[in-house]
């Protein structure tokens, strides 16, 4: 859909080509092995969280439902990017068709948007758990949890369809254009358009505000109330446990929103594509890898469930 209108504006079949990280063969092999190792760690870490949450009845709570949903999104998020990136590093063919580029951009933005929305939903879950503990099970029902995740996915799809369709209505100059990136992200693709992109940049800022600024403000408001509630806890141990639960989520939030805001919300004139590639490596590998590490190393319930799986003591399932 988003590629068809763009194809009509081309004088011939158009392809994009990704710029290499390096042309040195030994360094290419090193990068390939490094990114492959990180990718496998992301797959194993997030898959382990999904497995543990699904197979242990003690983890069948809203908090861990959202955590497993986040891990599922992270697996697909990196899979949209990394296999193609690895093939471009190792192989000689680095071309991607117009339709392929549009498809990758669509799924990359959609999954990244759902990721941001899920972090905001998890903040609200922590707010209800800490500020309204007696009503937690009444508010955060299974039906509501499924509905908010479905709404996040639906809103992400709606925003991404509009943005991606708008970008690929552009004419792209020439038969073959080089993308100074390792994926079809919005800023580098916009730079290849043979038209005035000011309106499209304005749309990108609006979408970025909806995806990044609004959820981040909701997270901040949630944590203001959470902090006030924690400070009213008389027990020092209780305050420590509450802050420990929230600090894991805050660490992921600051990394995800901070890096994405730098890439998508700073002025185009002050941005550097080389810097954008480095930042993209952070949110492509960094946050998906840190999610399982942070939530497992700082969460006693998940660590206990993982130990049971590793020691072979079996799992407990709900009937």
TrEMBL record:
Recorded superkingdom: Eukaryota
Ranges annotated as spanning the membrane: 29-52, 64-86, 106-124, 144-168, 202-231, 243-265, 277-297
GO cellular component: plasma membrane
Localisation: Cell membrane
Gene3D superfamilies to which the protein is assigned, alphabetical: Rhodopsin 7-helix transmembrane proteins (1.20.1070.10)
MF (Gene Ontology): G protein-coupled receptor activity; olfactory receptor activity
Domain spans labelled G-protein coupled receptors family 1 profile: 45-295
The protein's role, per its UniProt record: Putative odorant or sperm cell receptor.
Annotated family: Belongs to the G-protein coupled receptor 1 family.
Protein name: Olfactory receptor
Organism: Pteropus vampyrus (Large flying fox)
Upper lineage: Eukaryota, Metazoa, Chordata, Craniata, Vertebrata
């Amino acid at each position: 859909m988003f590629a068809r209108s763009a194809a009509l504006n081309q004088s011939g079949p158009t392809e994009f080509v990704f710029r290499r990280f390096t042309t040195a063969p030994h360094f290419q092999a090193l990068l390939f092995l490094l990114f492959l190792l990180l990718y496998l760690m992301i797959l194993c870490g997030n898959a382990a969280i999904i497995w543990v949450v699904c197979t242990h009845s003690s983890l069948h709570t809203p908090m861990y439902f959202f955590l497993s949903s986040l891990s599922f999104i992270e697996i697909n998020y990196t899979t949209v990017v990394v296999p193609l990136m690895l093939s471009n590093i190792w192989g000689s063919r680095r071309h991607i068709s117009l339709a392929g580029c549009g498809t990758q951009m669509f799924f990359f933005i959609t999954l990244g948007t759902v990721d941001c929305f899920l972090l905001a939903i998890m903040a609200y879950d922590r707010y209800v758990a800490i500020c309204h503990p007696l009503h937690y099970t009444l508010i955060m029902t299974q039906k509501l949890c499924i509905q908010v995740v479905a709404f996040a996915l639906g809103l992400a799809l709606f925003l991404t369809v509009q943005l991606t369709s708008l970008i690929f209505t552009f004419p792209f100059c020439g038969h073959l254009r080089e993308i100074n990136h390792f994926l079809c992200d919005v800023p580098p693709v916009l730079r290849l358009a043979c038209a005035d992109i000011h309106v499209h940049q304005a749309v990108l800022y609006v979408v970025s505000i909806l995806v990044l600024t609004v959820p981040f403000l909701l997270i901040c408001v949630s944590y203001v109330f959470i902090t006030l509630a924690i400070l009213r806890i008389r027990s020092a141990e209780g305050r420590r446990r509450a802050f420990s639960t929230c600090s894991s989520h805050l660490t992921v939030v600051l990394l995800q929103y901070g890096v994405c805001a730098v890439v998508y919300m700073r002025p185009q004139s002050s941005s550097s594509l080389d810097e954008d590639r480095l930042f993209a490596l952070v949110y492509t590998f960094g946050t998906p890898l840190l999610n399982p590490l942070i939530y497992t190393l700082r969460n006693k319930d998940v660590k206990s469930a993982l130990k049971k799986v590793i020691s072979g003591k079996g799992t407990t399932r709900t009937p």
